[in-house]
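Marked as duplicate of an earlier ticket. Keeping the data here for the record.
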Amino acid sequence: MAEPRMPEEMLGNYAHILAEVATTGRRLTRNELEIRRALGRDAADAGHQLRALVTMHLAQTREAWPRAAAGNSPATVDAVLAAVEQAVDAFAEGFERAQRLTVRREEAARREFIDDLLYGRSDLVRLAERATRFGLRLSRAHAVAVASGPEAYTETDAVPRSVEAALLTRFSGRKILLTTKDGRIVCIAPGSQPDVLRYFAKQSHAATDGGQVAVGRPHKGPGGVVHSYDEALEALDLAERMGMEDPVLYASDLLVYPVLTRDRQAMADLVRSELGPLQKARGGAEPLLKTLAVYFDAGCVAAETARRLALSVRALTYRLERIHQLTGSDPADPMHRYSLQTAVIGARLLDWPAKEL
């Protein structure tokens, strides 16, 4: 894209100031400096480049200074150069102020858009229109990945910046939006490009020193982003409650859990019925509940379960027999196993026995 043409008026009365300084050696007045700052702001708003504008100042200095000094008593070289320094510095100050203000406005607009997008606020048609400004076409399917680390992150922190740099290097030109929300790193990418979110997960896991990443399913439309985002958050929450340590979680792999908790009351009844008697055990229900959880996670293999619990196989067998005595259900019996395992999952989801059902 061609650089916007810069008219000579962009420098104001710079040549006239130089002519006076060349003959009198005076400094720029306060009003002149303020005018230079205003010219700098106007140049920034017009989209010109500061480097080109400084070059214009220097070129006009070379042209105006000798001509002004020819028929007059020239000031010292130091006085003229000091005036040039004042003029350019004031111009650059105004230019940079305008740029900072523009950046702050852009950041505020971007943050407002992200909040509206991830919370499902604002008119969806208007949201889709605003999205094009940030490289998203919400009429298509998008998926969201959320990375959680040991600390809360903001967009200016080193970790999100390093992840963003890696993504931009790998996928230059792709329509990707990376941001932070509630201390987590969020990546929004087209649903047709799962490689982007896989790479984001890899980079985030490494950058957060082993943090966990959840990936929502692709969904279409302006509401699809918030749907996918909610799925990713729910996956992270589920991982915490279920003790899942997988570095990357996919919402599509965890759909059974929302199904199990859709009827919360029915799940609570199952937990009380199947596992409630464990509270009568010495030490409460927690040790035996953990035994069941590890037993099922180990594929109901006694030797592997004992190893994970740091128990002997004999001690594990005693615990399983105790569970059978208390509940009436035998964990080793396939007929009983499904109800027990479902109840154990429900207990994790409902945080039982820590919370009363």
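See parent ticket for discussion. Residues 28 and 119 are 53 Å apart (CA to CA).
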